[in-house]
Amino acid sequence: MPKDNPTSPEKEELGKLLFYDPILSGNKDVACASCHHPNYGYSEFLDISIGPNSHGLGSKRRFKQPNDIPFVKRNAQTILNTAFNGIDMYGRYEPETSEMFWDDRSHSLEKQSLEPIKAFEEMRGHGIDESEILQVIMARLKQIPKYQELFAAAFKEPNAITIDNMAKAIAAFERTLITNNSRFDRYMRGEEDAMLLSEKEGFALFKSVGCANCHLGPMFSDFKMHVLGVPENMKLPSPDMGVNDTFAFRTPSLRNLRFTAPYMHNGSLPTLRRVLEFYEDIANRKVRNEHVPVEKFDPLVRELELSVKEMSLIISFLNTLNDDSFDKSIPDAVPSGLPVGGNLD
């Protein structure tokens, strides 16, 4: 945790209620949990997310009609283990500067937690300007006695309902969502039988063919930007050009992939096999995105040497990184009295 945001049970409890409370959205219909729900590993089974003016959960989520709000242009990454975003292979990381989002546009969970609230297609919706939305949310929270009590208990200061404190509380809750007891973790701690022989072979292949060039360290990510030329998602009206219009996106973690399909920054690849087939195409210099020619492919991925016969073993290894021992509890109610998690029915 950052030095200016030490955790506490009171702060975590407040953050959890805020995470599930749609009062944080412009039209009080979307919560953080709408797209990051524990039933789906704090992610969702959608390629790209659907925010305001919608209903349903996961793959059943749909826009209401009429609707003029666009899709969120990127896949909702899981919040599990975001406490460790930025960690390197030696276990070093700085929570104040940790990389967030597919394009690294925000650093630290505290700063990240505010961005979806401000985004039109994620939580803000129609009716409130981006420059005003956070102050509107503060005014709402200050009108609710329970939130007055919870903020005071969490931060032990007068006038505790502030934008910074809201961000700190949400981040404190998100840092409780850790999975570090997968079969792979147990194997690395010396439990030899935690992984099958085929899975160990897959781990060896994962390293030898080049996957570990970018997917390394405890979170299986270097948290850096790479150009891959991922196929476009046809739901979007224009190409997503990534960081500085380079078509580069941050390496995601490979933990808990069972909960995070479909894959890549725009959810364009539905299965792990399709992901590995895509990487095989890269190795064979095949273009899958007309806007990204071969010469723009990241040199690290051009070095991959992946064959079809190796894919099953690598997928077997990736499945050892799943761990469902995370907090799946959902509040019975939130202080605003609104539907928990937003309009999920």
Q: Which tags fit this structure?
A:
single chain; 345 residues; mainly alpha; two-stranded antiparallel sheet; 13 helices
Output the radius of gyration: 21 Å
Order of SSEs, N→C?
A: HHEEEEHHHHHHHHEEHHH
Question: Whole-number average pLDDT?
Answer: 95
Helix content: 25-40%
Class by helix and strand content?
mainly alpha
Number of strands: 6
Cα shape: globular
Beta-strand share of residues: under 5%
| Number of discrete helical segments | 13
Calculate the terminal CA-CA distance, rounded to whole Å.
Answer: 35 Å
Q: Name the poorly predicted regions.
A: none
Account of the 3D structure:
The structure is a single chain. This protein has 345 residues and is mainly alpha-helical. Strands 1-2 form a two-stranded antiparallel sheet. Strands 3-4 form a two-stranded antiparallel ribbon. A hairpin with a 6-residue loop joins β1 and β2. α1 packs antiparallel against α7. The longest helix is centred in the N-terminal third of the chain and has 12 residues. The radius of gyration is 21 Å and the shape is globular. The mean pLDDT is 95.
